[in-house]
Write a structure and sequence with these properties.
- The structure is a single chain.
- By secondary structure, this protein is mainly beta.
- The chain has no helices and eleven strands.
- Strands 2, 4, 5, 6, 9, 10 and 11 form a seven-stranded mixed beta sheet that branches. A four-stranded antiparallel beta sheet has the order 1-3-8-7, with no helix packed on it.
- A hairpin with a 4-residue loop joins strand 7 and strand 8.
- The chain is elongated.
Length: 119
């Protein structure tokens, strides 16, 4: 069983910064893709950023130049550095992993952490 646990959300003023962390645990896991999604009230969940095991990144257009994803494969952890936050970044942020356990490949989600950008 693979578990993902996020941390680092909170309330921040516009133009402020936050850093989200995600830690994956489980037996014999190989993370192929690590990433972050978010869901704002009344909207569908959307991709924020991903990082694959070839060190390629993908970002939503709305966060390019402001957010940066990084990872520590040895520790099965990854991070989302969010700078220049805007009120429209307010959402529940979910960490995501596409994992190879040796028996199967499957997506996993964290429980979500609230990010609120407001003055």
């Amino acid at each position: 069983q693979v578990q993902l646990v996020e941390s680092g959300g909170g309330l921040v003023q516009p133009e402020g910064s936050l850093r989200l962390s995600c830690a994956a645990s489980g037996k014999s896991i190989n993370i192929i893709i690590m990433g972050w999604y978010r869901q704002a009230p009344g909207k569908e969940r959307e991709l924020v950023a991903t990082l694959n095991n070839r060190m390629s990144t993908e970002y939503a257009d709305s966060v390019k130049g402001r957010f940066a994803i990084s990872g520590d494969n040895a520790k099965n952890m990854w991070f989302l550095q969010m700078n220049g936050l805007k009120p429209e970044d307010t959402a529940v942020y979910y960490c995501y992993a596409y994992v190879d356990t040796g028996l199967l490949r499957a997506p996993y989600w964290g429980q979500g952490t609230q990010v609120t950008v407001s003055s």
